Structure formats: C-alpha cells, structure tokens
Amino acid sequence: MKHVVALAYRLLLLVFLSVLSQRAAAQASVTGSGSLTGTVLDSLTQQPVPFATVVLLPPAPSEKAAAGQSADEQGHFELTKLKAGAYRLRISFVGYGVRTQAVTVTDGRLALGPLRLPATAQKLGEAVVVGQKPLMEVKPDRLVYNADQDVTNAGGTAQDVLRKAPLLAIDGDDNVTMRGNSNFKVLINNKPSPTLAANLKEALKSIPADQIKSVEVITTPPAKYDGEGTAGIINIVLKKGAKQGLNGTVGANAGTRGSNGNGSLNFRQGKFNFTSSLNGGLNYNNHSSSSSEQVTYRSTRNDTLRQEGTGSNTGYYGSGSLGLDYDPAEHHSLSLNGSFFSYGGANQSANLNRYSTPLPGFGALFLRDTRSTYNGGNAEVTGTYTRTYKQERREWSTILQYAYNSNRNGYEFSQFNNSDRPLDLSLASYRERSLTRLPGHEYTLQSDYTLPLGEKKTLEFGLKGIVRLTGSQAQVDTLFPALATEYATSRYRGTAFDYRQDVEAAYATYNFNATPKLHLGLGGRVERTGLWAEFANTNTGIPYRSYLTPLPNANLSYELSKTSSLRLAYSRRISRPYIYYLNPYVNRSNPISYSYGNPNLDPELTHSVELSYNNFIKTTSFNVALSVLRTGNSIEQVSFVSTQPLLPVPEEIVPSPNLILTTSANVASNTAFQLNGYVSAKPTEKWSLSVGGNVQYLVLRSTALELTRSGFAGNYNINTSYKATKTLTLQGNLFQNLARPTLQGRSSGFVYYGLGLRQTLLKGRADLSFNAQYPFTAQRTFSYATATPTFSQDSRFTSQQRQFRVGFTYRFGQQQQTMRQRKSIRNDDIKGGGGGQGSGG
C-alpha cells in the first residue's frame, strides 16, 4: 500500500511538469547534457521515502522550476537533460520537512547519494537533523502511533501500547477491538505470528513496550495482503538492531502489578548483520471481583441465579529472537530469522451461587472453588531470498516459513453444596478437572514480483500457499467424594479433534496515473480454501471440501492541493475462523453456562468502502474518513437456554431449564456506518498533541434468530507530551470507549488514563522513567447485558487498574543507523484474537 502513501505529492509533481511543458520554448535554454541522481531516505529510520517530490530550482530568489520528478518506490530519482550551472534542489513529502540544498550541475552525471528528509517535528540545518518524530502521524493509507516517543509506555507491554493507538481499544477481558470490531489481524514487522492469532491477549503480554517502535493502523489493506476481515490490519513495528558495529540495550522495570527485564545485542560488519533480543516478565497483584444475575423464563415461574465471585491472577511471559542477514553479491540477499513467544499463568477464583429454587444436583446454594491454568508457546523460523535488478523498483523475493504453536488450558474445581465458603476437599459434593491441548503446525511459501512499467506505472503479482495442521485433545476427569476416592476419566466428554486447512492464493495489483491529479490502483486476489476435520473419539468428521473466493480491490486518490488529497477505496475481504471458534470441546467450568465451538463455521466475507480526506499544514496532520462495512454471514456469539436450542447442541449435553449454552455461528448480517478522524499537531516547539475519535452506527440483523439490533458506538483518544527540558519529557493520555450494542445485548464503556515522565541520562545513553496508570482510580468496572425471549443476564466485572512503574534502560555500542528492510510473510487471513468458544478453560 505504500504506492498510495505519497500519492498527493506524486501527483503534485505532474503539475510542475505540466507547467514546464507549457513553457517549453522559454525553457529551451535550460536543456543540456547534465544529470542528477540520488535517493531520498527518512532521516530517522533510514528507509526510502517513496514518491517524494524532487524539484530543481535556479538560485534564489527565482522559483521557476527547471526540472522536476517524483522519486520511485525506493526513493530513487534522476533528473536528466540539465544545463550546467548552479541550482537549488528542493525535496518534499507529506509528513516530512522540506529539504533544500545547493547543487552544481556539470555536463556529466552527478550522483548525490542518500538525501535524508526530517520528520514533521524535526528541524533541518545544513543537513543536520535534530528533534524527534511526532507521537501520531496521519498518512493517506494509515495512522501511525510512534510508541517509542511515548514515555508512558516505559516498563509496560504491547497491551499498554495498543490501548493508546488510534482507533483501538482493550476491554475489561483484555480483548482488543479496532473501530469496535474484533475481526482484524495483527502483524509483527509485517509478518504473522500464530501465537497472536491463537491467543492475542496473552501473547501481547510477552512483547515489552520498550521494544516497540510504532503501531500502524491500516483500515483498507491492498490485495497483496491476505484476504482480511472487516476492520483492517494492526502492524506492530519492533525496534531494529541493524546498526554498524556492536551495539545493544539492557533494561529493567519494576511495578506494583508487574515487573520485567529485556535486552538486545546486535552486530553488523560488511555483508553480515546479526540481531538478537530476549525479554521476560511477571504479572502479580491482579485481583478482581464479579457479580451476575441470570433470570430464566419458564411457563410457571421465573428462576433466578445470582453469582458473586472473587479472583486473583498471576502469570509470566517471555520472548526472544535471532536474525542473520547476508548479502553474498550485488542484487542478492539472504535472511534467516527465528523467534519464540511463551506465556503462562493461573487464576484462583471462588464463585458463590444462589438459586431462587433448588436445582437437582446443586441445591439452592453452592460454592465453586476453581483454579484455572494456561500456558502456551510459539516458535517461528523464516528464510528469505531477495533479488533486485539494475532496473529501479524491479524486485523478486521468495519466503519460506515454519511455525509451531502449542497452547494448554486447564481447570480444577471443587463444589460445596449448601455452603458459602470452601471446606475440606473430603467434604466436597463434586470435583472436576480438565486439560486441553491445542497443538498447531503452519507451513507457508510465498513469492512476490514487482515490475515497473515506466516511471508512473507498477505491476505487482505473487503466489502464496499455506498449510495449517491443528486440533484439540481434551480430557475430563470427575470425582464424587462420597462415592469414590480417585478421579475417573469421562468417556463421553473428552475431545480428539484434528483439523487441516489449505490456502492457495494469487494476486496482482496495477498502479498508474490516470490524469496529472488522479492516481488509480487496481488489484485482485483469488484464494482457494480446502479444509478437513476428524473427530477420533466419535469416528465422525467433515469430509474434505474446498471453495474459491475472488477478492477485488481498488483505490483512487485525487490531489486537491500541495498538502491535501481525497482517497476512495473498495475491498472485499475474507476471514476464516481459527481453532478457538471451531473446537467442539464443551467448557463446563461455569455450572450454569457452558460454551463450545462450531466446526461447521463458514468464513466471513466483507465489503468495505472508505472515503478519506488528508491534509498537512506545517506541523499539523489531519485525517477524516467515512466508511461502510457490510458482512453478510458474520460469525456471531449466540447464547440460548439448552431446552430451547437456537443452534445444534452436542449430544453429550443433557438439557436443563436453567442451563445457558454459548457458541458461534454464521447467523447475522452486520452493517457499520463509521466516521473517524485524527489530528496530530505541535502547538509549540515543546508541546505535541494528538486527538482522535470514531463514531459508528451499527445495524445487526439475524434472520435465523429473528433479531434486529442497532445503535451508536464510539471512542476518543487524547495524547499529549511536553518537553520540559532537553532531557526531561512529560506525557499524558486519555481514552474513553462508549457503550456498544451486541446482537443479543449490550456492553458498557470504560475510561483509561495514564501519566508518565522520562529523564535521559549519561549523554543520551540511558533513560530513567516513571509511569502511573489510573493513579487516581483503584479499580475499573465493566458490565455486560444479554436479553432474549427465554432468559436475561446482567454481569459486572471489576478489576484492579491502578499501577505504578519505574524503569531504567541503558544503550551501549555504536549508534550509526544502517537499517535494511527485509521481506516478510503476512498470514492475516484468519479470524482470531484469542476469542471463541471451547477453549478448554
């Protein structure tokens, strides 16, 4: 999508060229045999600035352009047929400062080498860049949150970072949403992670905030990405370590609810580049309480169940990576990278249950004392070969990736009838334990080719294949202490579920200028999906079947002025359900509410149309977008009374008048009308401010359930920073998410805020930070409501939020930046996020 990023400035150049052509006779004296070449780079990241505007001007004060051109996708430009003499070279690009320098053209070819543009908040003086990037950047195709400029992130995790990124929110259960939608994909450095797809909210805890450079929110991904769902893509960009010589960082953070440590070691010499990182941490003092009231409507009476509970959670996380890059010859490069994530923890809870009428096997009062455990790990190995050519922008790359993912979930509870407190285990009325293992293997092969067709046209195409092998093995043991002394394995409640999914895809995109002010991008993707499932314990399954899905994509951008543009984009996307949605295992940890997955789910197909306006004036970036998203076969969570099933029920479940079942199904058509905007400004030299908001009107319809729900939802985000001195920065942020309608009810809104400061020490090599999350509020409460013709349920969950952290980071070694971007795989086609049913506790 980077073709579109600089479109306004690319088209602006054509205006200059048009003027030149109209004055060809007057400029004839300028024609000569000289030429200028160079490459435009971002001064901080050292990455190319594609389509930057390059204009050659006579010495001041004249502003009559002698020549002009837009840089290509790699930031390269070449001005030809120039008359020898003294000129000014002016380079500009939206979101960057303007660079102007004196050049002397000869009758031959003059190579200027890399020309670095400063970010908006930087100053340029004789090619010396000072300052820092703005906290928020508004670009034509994405919103960028520069997390490394936010001091309140120090000592936190990726969860803390995503809370403050534009259009994103994290609710009371640590579930991430993008514009209120959970159907998005998360990438790490533009490549997927099976751990993120499998259990997003736990995996995010294993990524230290100190290792995150930025978060990119892409609402309309192009065809070269895998078929994406409704909301878009979140790309977490980690800090690079490819610097000249030996360098690295070490850091430690301690807080009232968590502590962590991290480090990196990197080395670059000649054709070799080595990078590495290691991180780990602990979570503690995470206490919570909950309450709920469930009313089941029966013909003769209403049954009421009230639950009150307390909980305490502890956990650990860790991650690491190794990378080796080698350039054996000009135009050839090899890369081998490996990484791992791991996490685990336990939750101890006690839930007191009170019924209005006694129930068989439970009574009117009972308590469940439960210990839940979870742990998971993921390892990935990726090899890349990249071939470039003498022709600028022409490139071929091939990538091979293998990933292994394993998650375990379990619980063990003791039930005490007619008691409001835990007793000796020998006095328990019933005991149960369960362990679920979710192994997974993923193999990916991808090849991409970029072919320039002249200066203003580019053709991209590629092939991709993915093989996913996953499943679920679950065992349930039961014990009635009055009848036996040892657990017995249940013959009917275990699960042995194997699942295979094959995806083959081909795509092509074509970008060109229709007129001097209008740029078009046309693309299409075709994906074939094959799947198969088997239930070993019942000798049943889903026979192998496949389907073909066309996914068209188009966008156009029109330049309104030098600093503003309009963009219209359309895409059709597909989202395949992940194992947590498919797993048929029945989770019975809650005595009156069972959950399970649905292996017969079909993928979601979504049509998305977005119209956006972008403007950049001095130090202020502005973006506003209108969009409509419609999903005709949306995967929705559905709850119902077991005696009046709305969806198929596993045979092992014995219906009960007060038993609520929850699963997922393709039962709705959802439409979202959205308006979102973002402003990033620098009111003074020391003060930065960004404000964003998102308003939605949702229409949720289900013919199968005979339901229609509609209503408004939204959120807003404010971030501000103040540089008190050269070495001291103060920061603050505020986020509020409004209440949101669901297919069968409503979820409450919430507020998040934080304060922080960072002091730079040791001549810029060290940072000392202090952060406060919810400093004036100890707890935060979330509420959820469900209302159906057969039952209603109101739930409240209160968790501890106040947290204080202090951290220290030290940087050592050489600091010369020579980063190089590598190709990576993006498997972003599956609906995940750690949700779904039947996760085994």
From TrEMBL:
Domain TonB-dependent receptor plug intervals: 144-232
Pfam families for this protein: CarbopepD_reg_2, OMP_b-brl_3, Plug
Secretion signal, residue range per the UniProt entry: 1-26
Location in the cell: Cell outer membrane
Record-annotated Outer membrane protein beta-barrel domain positions: 388-810
Keywords assigned by UniProt, alphabetized: Cell outer membrane, Membrane, Signal
Annotated Gly residues bias: 832-841
UniProt cross-references to Gene3D superfamilies, sorted A to Z: Carboxypeptidase-like, regulatory domain (2.60.40.1120), TonB-dependent receptor, beta-barrel domain (2.40.170.20), TonB-dependent receptor, plug domain (2.170.130.10)
Disordered as annotated region, ranges: 285-316, 814-841
Compositional bias ranges of the Polar residues kind: 285-299
Protein name in UniProt: Outer membrane beta-barrel family protein
Species for this entry: Hymenobacter ginsengisoli
